[in-house]
Specification:
extended, alpha+beta, 4-stranded antiparallel beta sheet, about 280 residues, two-stranded antiparallel ribbon, Alpha-Beta Plaits, 8 strands
Amino acid sequence: MAKINSKISGFYKLSVEERQKIIADQCDLTEEELNLLGEFGYFKKEQLDTMIENVVGSYQLPIGIACNFKINGEDKLIPMVIEEPSVVAAASNAAKMTRIHGGFKCEEIEPIMIAQIQITSMKSIKKAEEAIWDKKKDILKLANSQDPLLVKLGGGAMEVNTRTFETNRGDMIIVHLLVNVLDAMGANAVNTMAEAIAPLLEEITGGKVYLRIVSNLAKHRVARAKAIFDKELLGGKEVVEGILNAYEFARVDPYRATTHNKGIMNGIIALTLATG
């Protein structure tokens, strides 16, 4: 096998075919393998080349449909993109078990995202934090002035919280700006607001702002669903006891929780990939 040299000058400037040729030469690809790399499926290679950098091919997965779902009284067909067998079948089977009691009941997600603003180098962290609370209305007003359309539609910045930390780099205040982003993912909106209020926070606290950016720990934006399963359909009382004990094991032990949650993520990732 040829020795690979990953230092390729101007790789991003090359055409897709030129990149493929370099990869084929460096990795000793057969003609059949190179032809597989050239199968772009639904997309044209020119489209893919504008989506990410250094494109050499595309990757495809099957789309399956999970059946039997009834959600908030309406029947739904659930698209799932996944390479692992049995996941779609398991979801369909579980949904079928819930239908006798009306299916799944889902709560509306609260669309609150968090912008974090990191403040350092304050003379008094206590006084700085109190000053932020005193100016909360001004902070919210300035934040909302950045996105009047969002506010008009019923969203916008709604709360300011503070957290303090003693770190190896000195005391820090982390300001949380809570923003109702409505139907958007919200990163652009909250980042714009965080950038806008950073100078005001420096003025208020006498400190220095560094990071001012969205947090992807969206603890307010939690999806909840519930359903009733008859124990007979699950296999009887002993099976139910096993399920409950497995849950409790995962609740108290992170080693079990990681694998327990991986099974849950199989479904979440499959739906997310299918729906974009």
